[in-house]
Design brief:
about 130 residues; mainly alpha; Helix Hairpins; about 0% strand
Length: about 130
């Protein structure tokens, strides 16, 4: 194997590792964002529940209790709906980032496959000219 081919493989491996690192970073960032959103959603639901609990305990009539309960359900529904919209946007963004890395990796593979073929053809030509 020629030095040029070895250098080519080393360069390809370095770029492949960079692509894997990029995927890993996307994965970690996506996971962190997802966990933070879940914690945020849990906290807001607990806060809404506590506020509603205070309203219910201080309610003077059954209608006040029902109103507080209805408000709690509305608050939770709004917050979950917002969470779902934000999470969906995050997933789409992450998908786009992964797609970009994969597309770059495909281009890298095509580029280096061409270079390897070119190097192989040169090596065969050299070997043929030496034996002729």
């Amino acid at each position: 194997m020629s030095k040029q081919t070895i250098d080519l493989f080393n360069e390809y491996n370095s770029k492949s590792i960079e692509a894997l690192r990029a995927l890993g970073e996307i994965n970690v960032a996506s996971f962190e964002k997802s966990i933070n959103k879940q914690v945020e959603l849990s906290n807001t639901i607990v806060e809404a529940s506590l506020a509603t609990g205070k309203q219910i305990t201080s309610a003077k009539t059954p209608a006040d209790v029902l109103q507080a309960s209805a408000q709690l359900l509305q608050d939770i529904a709004d917050r979950v709906n917002g969470f779902v919209k934000e999470s969906t946007a995050d997933v789409v963004k992450t998908g786009d980032e992964v797609k970009a890395v994969v597309e770059d990796a495909v281009k890298l593979n095509a580029e280096y496959a061409g270079k390897v073929v070119d190097n192989s053809v040169e090596a065969v030509k050299k070997a043929a000219s030496k034996s002729a």
